[in-house]
Write a structure and sequence with these properties.
By secondary structure, the chain is an alpha/beta fold. It contains 20 helices and 23 strands. An eight-stranded mixed beta sheet has the order 2-1-3-4-5-6-7-8, with helices on both faces. Strands 17, 18, 19, 20, 21 and 22 form a six-stranded mixed beta sheet that branches. A three-stranded parallel beta sheet has the order 12-9-15. The protein is rod-shaped, with a radius of gyration of 43 Å. It starts with a helix and ends with a helix. GO terms for molecular function: ligand-gated monoatomic ion channel activity. It is found in: Cell membrane.
């Protein structure tokens, strides 16, 4: 492996020597320009750019230099102080700007380049200075504090040698030199991550979220904290830039209003901010005005609402342990058991000539036996000798015992652990429930999602929201949570935020995680065709995404799952009167039925007695 590396290095050195020999023998590339051209050639060979923009006194530039640049797979584009290509600003990684002119023309090119915004960080500039130019005393007259430029200057002692300087932060620093056919550098000419050298970016922020972005004030000084501010700090630390946070006038993320964008998106569209931080959704409509960085995470939407009171029992809680269909089935079983017991007993009485039992007695005894058996209580059955009746009665009792045991166990569990049913569990439930009110965050992607939907549940949700205006739209998380405290009201927001709210306050509850909707990516918007997009994406990938920073943040704050307030639901208190009133209602119903039956029986007996007396002739 070492031998292979030695061979590769030897071949590279030979190539440099041959190219330098070619340049030194060319008709223009004579000895006076040999060092500059060789330095330029070797510098370009190490850079990943596609175009070299050359500013020169005229377009009669040396063919030897152009051919050497082309041999590196790079294209030459000539320019002067009056020609500026719009692509230069949008694709800084693709271009290197070379200024090789007299001092007067160099000054005008620098002024115009600065005006065009091409002297910002990431833009690669190389200025070849005249031999007589004094760097220490003169360069500060042409470059400013924010400029970042590489300078080539012939060594006065030996013209074939070239000194390489870097200008940044109003300081010129010697970073290397060219001698003996090769470049020797103490620092990289252009770094992988450009050092923005205290460059200031303007960042739009909408502090509507108390956990992802929070605005605090301490002794009249404003501070911003939260996940997205921390990500911005990590980028600033990596790329060495400063930033200034700006709030939109309307404190909104941004929607189209009167044909133009407002809020933070509008600030980017109008070049008032370089980028924005926050939980922005990548929407097709927004892509017309801004670009987006690589997604820092993903989110789903959930509905948060007031937790139903788990301490209050339903008045008819005794029916809760079994589903309605189970109650209906058990009632059918009792009726069917009565019918067969009555049929079998009647046949048995008739076959055995048991005159002691009348038709009414068989009916009455069979009915009460079925009812008492269904309540796990005994009763009197006509003396039957048939095995069919005994087998039927045995299986009636087995079924009854099993059902009663299931009911008793579920009733105990229901009284021990009270878990109230949510008003809604899905977005569909919220839409179809006429008593439930939906609340969303205005001027956000949430509003855009519902408002632009053409069909489906999102469209139905927007129709419901629109009918409930202005109550249904709020412009801060705080207001949305206040609305969610009302009965039958739900606030739509990001799952992680809603999870945190439910952890902090068990009076809130969210819809189940499996019923979340509208999964989408979260990314920071930037200016359209922003020249630093790729640089920021690379830094973001390295310091945030690859390390799983957002996921760790969610895990540390327990934002991945909603709160488990089961411990509170398990607290038992003395049963209140209104909680058992259903049992008293049931007794009242039974008492009423018994009175009606008593009246019917007495009436029936009186009628039968009178008929009997009339029949035997008793007055």
């Amino acid at each position: 492996m070492q031998l292979k590396q030695i061979i590769i290095c030897f071949i590279f050195e030979c190539r440099i020597f041959i190219e330098s020999l070619y340049l030194s023998t060319n008709h223009y590339c004579n000895h006076s320009h040999y060092g500059i051209i060789s330095t330029l050639y070797q510098t370009l060979n190490s850079l990943d750019v596609r175009y070299v923009v050359i500013f020169h006194e005229n377009y009669q530039f040396p063919d030897c230099i152009v051919s050497r640049i082309n041999s590196l797979g790079k294209y030459v584009e000539f320019a002067n102080e009056g020609y500026w290509n719009k692509d230069w600003e949008s694709m800084p990684d693709e271009y290197l700007f070379l200024v090789w002119t007299n001092v007067s023309l160099m000054e005008s090119i620098i002024k115009e380049g600065r005006k065009q915004g091409l002297f910002r960080p990431l833009f690669k500039w190389i200025i070849i200075l005249p031999t007589t130019f004094s760097i220490e005393t003169d360069i500060g007259n042409y470059l400013t504090h924010s400029d970042s430029v590489i300078l080539f200057h012939n060594d006065l002692l030996k013209s074939s040698n070239v000194l390489i300087y870097k200008w940044s932060n109003s300081t010129v620093e010697n970073i290397g030199h060219f001698s003996n056919g090769k470049i020797n550098l103490q620092k990289h000419i252009f770094q992988k991550y450009p050092n923005f050298e205290d460059y200031q970016f303007f960042v739009a922020i909408v502090p509507v979220d108390f956990i992802q972005m929070k605005k605090t004030k301490i002794k009249d000084q404003v501070f911003y904290v939260g996940l997205f501010v921390k990500i911005l700090d990590l980028l600033a630390e990596k790329l060495k830039f400063r930033y200034k946070l700006l709030e939109p006038d309307n404190l909104q993320f941004g929607i189209i209003e009167n044909g133009s964008w407002n809020g933070a998106i509008g600030m980017l569209d109008n070049k008032k901010a370089d980028l924005a931080i926050g939980p922005y959704n990548v929407l097709e409509q927004r892509l017309e005005a801004v670009d987006f960085m690589t997604a820092v995470g993903s989110e789903t939407l959930a509905i948060i609402m007031k937790r139903p009171d788990h301490k209050v029992l339903s008045s008819f809680f005794i029916t809760k342990p079994l589903k309605p269909e189970v109650w209906y089935s058990y009632l059918a079983f009792v009726i069917l058991a009565f019918a067969f017991i009555y049929l079998y007993t009647k046949l048995d009485v008739h076959e055995n000539n048991m005159r002691v039992y009348s038709e009414y007695s068989v009916f009455r005894l069979s009915l009460w036996y079925a009812i008492c058996a269904s309540l796990n209580q005994g009763s009197v059955l006509p003396n039957s000798k048939n095995s069919s009746v005994r087998i039927l009665v045995a299986f009636v009792w087995i079924t009854t015992v099993v059902v009663i045991a299931i009911y008793t166990g579920n009733l105990i569990a229901f009284l021990s652990v009270r878990k109230a049913k949510l008003p809604v569990e899905t977005l569909e439930d919220a839409v179809t429930n006429s008593e439930f009110r939906l609340v969303i965050l205005g001027s956000s992607a949430h509003e855009f999602l519902f408002k632009t939907a053409k069909t489906g549940v999102f469209r139905k949700a927007w129709e419901k929201i629109e009918k409930d205006l202005p109550y249904s739209i709020v412009y801060s998380l705080k207001d949305g949570l206040e609305r969610a405290k009302n009965q039958n009201t739900g606030f739509v927001n990001e799952r992680s935020v809603m999870n945190l709210v439910s952890h902090m306050d068990c009076d809130y509850v969210t819809t189940p995680v499996e019923n979340d909707f509208h999964s989408r990516s979260i990314a920071f918007p930037v200016q359209k065709h922003w020249p630093y997009l790729e640089t920021f994406n690379n830094a973001l990938q390295e310091v945030v995404i690859e390390g799983g920073y957002v996921e760790k943040w969610k895990t540390d704050l327990n934002l991945t799952e909603p709160a488990n307030c089961e411990s509170q639901e398990r607290i038992r208190e003395a049963v209140h009167f209104h909680e058992i009133i259903g049992v008293l209602y049931l007794f009242s119903i039974g008492l009423t039925i018994s009175v009606i039956v008593l009246f019917i029986e007495k009436t029936f007996y009186r009628i039968r007695y009178r008929l009997f007396r009339n029949k035997v002739g008793v007055n």
